[in-house]
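Per reviewer request, we include the raw input and output of the structure prediction for the construct analysed in the revised manuscript.
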Amino acid sequence: MASLNHPNICVVHDIGPGYMVMELIDGETLAARIAKGALPLDQALNTLCRLRMRWIVLIVRG
């Protein structure tokens, strides 16, 4: 899994029973973002497009 390298994909180094080791990425936590309330429409659409690109990369690279 760590072989996937793309700016829109968090690297997962290891997965086991009850744990996941992922790349540390600087930025706002999901909890902090949720506390701010709903995303404006433009940000929501941008996030959706980025998620779609992540899926395409995963599908193409296998």
